[in-house]
Amino acid sequence: MGRFTGKVTLVTGATGVVGGAVARAYAEEGAAVLAVGRDTARLAGLVKGIEDDGGRASSFAGDVTRSSETAAMVAAAVSRYGGLDVACNAAGVFGMLAPVADYDEDVWDDVLAVNLKGVFLSMKHEIAHMRAHGGGAIVNVASNVGAHWRLPGAAAYAASKAAVSHLTRTAARDHIADGVRVNAVSPGPIDSPMSIRPGETREQRDERLRSALPIGRVAAPEEIAAAVLWLSSPESSFVVGQDHVIDGGATA
Hints:
The chain has helices spanning 17-28, 40-52, 67-81, 105-132, 155-175, 202-212, 221-231, and strands at residues 8-12, 32-37, 56-61, 86-89, 136-141, 180-187, 243-246. By secondary structure, it is of the alpha/beta class. It has a single domain (8-238), classed as NAD(P)-binding Rossmann-like Domain (Rossmann fold, 3-Layer(aba) Sandwich).
């Protein structure tokens, strides 16, 4: 028995490092998991891994920048498992590193569409179902880059993630009376390809961040997943509209 036994959870960006860790963690704690992403092969691998470990999961190939597809993913969770209790919106892209004057407009549009519009559309349909069926909990994945910390050259990523932090607070105030509790996590550097600069090895990344981060290392994806599960569990039932920074002391 786990904290999410009998619950239905939905994870967007499930083929990413954080989303995958969150999906596996929900399944380990007893939830039925709908894993959402665009890479069908990686989704299939994630679902198989969860099932091989004795969990319940299925995949949904969808694009969070399209309202019809975010509505369909919620409908899929309901039709397959009977409802939707918890959602983690982890879909995101980094974009590029360039000064604002040199930033590519198409890349800007793509980053804002996935990172911000995707969270908005996902919440729009998740909340609509939850408020009509007794409530639920949502955790959005923002970043310490943006509202909490600056990274030169990451204009689109920083702007989108800062916006997710504020969108989370707005949604939380809008819908807590409906029984829907919304919070966010803002991770710092994670052991993932996104934290490795072009041409840099993993070892060089670790050395660069050893001195940059007070804790002296990057986060394991499972550490972020643990925070997401706490925020979406009854253990945090009085936590509403918070952005939980998990960055090893970088913004302390």
